[in-house]
Specification:
This protein has one domain: Flavodoxin domain (Rossmann fold), CATH 3.40.50. The chain is 28% helix and 13% strand. The protein has six helices and eight strands. Bound molecules: flavin-adenine dinucleotide.
């Protein structure tokens, strides 16, 4: 029996239109596995909620400018506690949670549009960005600081393509690079620590016979979330970057390191 860890408050944000899909099964398994281990779980099932995926003036009511200024207007509505109830509820769930799992299939090399729309609408100005002091020495609270600091996030992603297509020399590009905009740009930006993703490849060929092994691997990840080390992204305001250029200071990285990986310590 795995150890009972207990006490985590987990939000699962789930994006798949079919409850009987593999993604649906993985979401259901996460709920039962975490609850049986003594954790609290809430689920945002975006298709079941009929989640509105596009930002528009209706999101900001009387705080919508004409012409619409999405960032500023979302911040004004946030400051006035006047965001729409659906968005306010998601922000409340994020603040309630200490662990956030995103369960989705890779569609066109990224998350399904409904999930991107969740980010666009829920991660408002003054909540997820435009937070903290902007000065000569500090460029806001982001990348290691911010509203969601102290919480952890995990992507659970299924792909159609096999693992080799997503390897360092694979034609699709490395999976870590494809997930970079989500893991670093969306999750680390407002302060979430990001755990290494749980990625299942070749899922279109998965059979009922294959599923128990997949389920076991997922349960093992779920039951070790509390002790899993996050990806060591560099923090913005703690000396690694020149401010305001936000260039990585020379010499901090291993000699052969380039690209996105520059922004990971060690
Ligand atoms: C618009 C679109 C874009 C895409 N873009 C990409 C892309 O960029 N890169 C890429 O690699 N792939 C891509 N794909 C493929 C996609 O990532 C996969 O189809 C998806 O990840 C499979 O997950 P699913 O939940 O939809 O699987 P499902 O179709 O629900 O299931 C997959 C298989 O698992 C089986 N299965 C076994 N046990 C279970 C169980 N207990 N519960 C449910 N199913 C089970 C099912 O029978 C089925 O054969 C794309 C697909 C679409 C529709």
């Amino acid at each position: 029996m795995p150890p009972r860890l207990g006490g985590m408050k987990t939000l699962i944000v789930y994006a798949h239109p079919e409850p009987r899909s593999l993604n649906g099964s993985l979401k259901d398994l996460a709920v039962t596995t975490l609850e049986e281990a003594g954790h609290e779980v809430r689920v945002s099932d975006l298709y079941a909620m009929n989640w509105k995926a596009v930002v528009d003036a209706e999101d900001y009511g009387p705080y919508a400018s004409s012409p619409l200024r999405v960032a500023q207007d979302s911040g004004r509505a946030f400051d006035a506690s006047a965001l729409t109830p659906d968005v306010a509820a998601e922000q409340e769930k994020l603040l309630w949670s200490d662990t956030i799992i995103f369960q989705f299939p890779l569609w066109w090399y990224t998350m399904p549009a409904i999930l991107k729309g969740w980010v666009d609408r829920v991660f408002t100005f003054h909540f997820a960005y435009g937070v903290g002091e902007h000065s000569d020495t500090k460029y806001g609270e982001r990348f290691g600081e911010g509203t969601l600091a102290g919480r952890r996030a995990l992507l659970s992603v299924t792909t159609g393509g096999p693992e080799s297509h997503y390897a360092a020399r694979g034609i699709n590009g490395p999976i870590d690079d494809l997930l970079w905009p989500i893991q670093h740009g969306i999750l680390y930006y407002p302060g979430l620590e990001v755990l290494p993703p749980f990625v299942l490849h070749s899922t279109d060929r998965l059979t009922a016979q294959d599923y128990p092994e997949v389920a076991k691997a997922w349960q093992e990840r779920l039951l070790t979330l509390a002790t899993t080390e996050p990806i060591a992204f560099r923090r913005q305001n703690f000396g690694d970057y020149e401010i305001p250029a936000l260039h990585l200071r020379p010499g901090l990285e291993p000699a052969d390191r380039t690209g996105f990986a520059l922004h990971i310590r060690g």
